[in-house]
């Protein structure tokens, strides 16, 4: 599609052909809706985050215990020292734990909330990256079509630009992963690296420790 569309002149066909294929693939996707296994929702992650903050604020005057046995840890998870204020949400209550979900949370729920907070700076970053990549991928062929593509007596065809764009992207992703991932990922803890595969474009792999 990326090779043939630049040679179609009417803009109505340029946008119409991808739109038709998008509609067809969407309909094919929904034809298998009955075959999917539907699982009942088991609560929202946003509700869990809110519960952790509410429980921590309710115990704001209590000191953080040094003994892990004083924390509600039904999944046998490990409590970390980062964002220690939220650890107060897991302090056990004398009257029971299961019935007081807005007063006490498990260590696993607290740690999941911490992971979500650490990811907040990455969300706007990847939104901006997605916008830039989408604009580049959308108008790359159009820019190549309007530039002077002559190289001496040879006129470079548009598919050559597309091949060059794809090859350099994969090569850069491979070199980045080869020279920087092993060096910078372990000490940072939250490592963002470009994963290269022959069958993929540039994939982003996020590892949160």
Spell out the key features of this protein:
two-stranded antiparallel sheet, mainly alpha, single chain, two-stranded antiparallel ribbon, disordered C terminus
Kindly describe this structure.
This protein has about 210 residues and is mostly helical. The chain has three domains: about 30 residues, no CATH class; about 70 residues, no CATH class; about 90 residues, no CATH class. About 50% of the residues lie in helices and about 10% in strands. It contains five helices and four strands, in the order ααααββαββ. The strands form two sheets. The chain has a two-stranded antiparallel ribbon. A hairpin with a 2-residue loop joins β1 and β2. α2 packs across α3. It is elongated, with a radius of gyration of 26 Å. The chain starts with 10 loop residues before the first helix and ends with a strand.
Task: Give a nutshell description of this structure.
By secondary structure, the chain is mainly alpha-helical.
Would you spell out the secondary-structure blueprint of this structure?
Elements: H1 11-31, H2 45-58, H3 107-118, H4 122-146, E1 150-151, E2 154-155, H5 158-188, E3 190-195, E4 203-208
Antiparallel strand pairs: 1-2, 3-4
Spatial separation of the terminal alpha carbons:
40 Å
How many DSSP E strands?
A: 4
Helicity range: 40-55%
Sketch the major β-sheet.
2 strands, antiparallel
Strand order across the largest sheet: 1-2
